[in-house]
């Protein structure tokens, strides 16, 4: 994965921000970390059947400019509007698998392994393992539940 060039993100106080270099241009970094973060945390548009009304479909604005049917992001946000149960965990796992399928399709990974667990009623842990030419890269993310059990 080290052959890819990505826009660098800074993480501070729980937020990601694009890094701007001293020359005023976007900072770049070797690898796919920014793409992995955006793929998981950008909201992919929900279908009509996945949300109660059209106004709740969400979606990342950048997908409006896509020339094909590919959309960046995941639908994890849909599952996080429910309490964390085994069915929610299973749904999140499917959404994470789907949001990283492009890595296989574009040749950045040979396989992807996803595990999802509930840390408590407000945090979901996601572990993703990407394999390329027998080299495994692991990323761990924690996602806050929008409606924790009270």
Secondary-structure map with pairings?
Blueprint: E1 5-7, E2 9-12, E3 15-18, E4 28-30, H1 33-41, H2 76-79, H3 86-99, H4 101-105, E5 111-120, E6 123-132, E7 135-144
Antiparallel strand pairs: 1-4, 2-3, 5-6, 6-7
Give an overview in words.
- This protein is an alpha+beta fold.
- It has one domain: Nuclear Transport Factor 2, Chain: A (Roll), CATH 3.10.450.
- Helix content is 21%, strand content 29%.
- The chain has 4 helices and 7 strands; from the N terminus they run E-E-E-E-H-H-H-H-E-E-E.
- Strands 5-6-7 form a 3-stranded antiparallel sheet. Strands 1-4 form a two-stranded antiparallel sheet. A two-stranded antiparallel ribbon has the order 2-3.
- A hairpin with a 2-residue loop joins strand 2 and strand 3.
- The chain is globular.
- The termini are far apart.
- 18% of the residues are buried.
Give the strand content: 25-35%
Biggest sheet, spatial arrangement of strands:
5-6-7
Can you tell me the number of structural domains? 1
Shape: globular
Secondary-structure content class: alpha+beta
CATH domain class name? Alpha Beta
**Strand/helix succession:** EEEEHHHHEEE
Number of helical segments?
4
Number of strands: 7
Weakly predicted, low-confidence segments? none
Distance between the termini: 41 Å
Main β-sheet description? 3 strands, antiparallel
Portion in helices: 10-25%
**CATH architecture assignment name:** Roll
Average pLDDT score? 82
User: Remind me, CATH topology?
Assistant: Nuclear Transport Factor 2, Chain: A
Radius of gyration: 16 Å
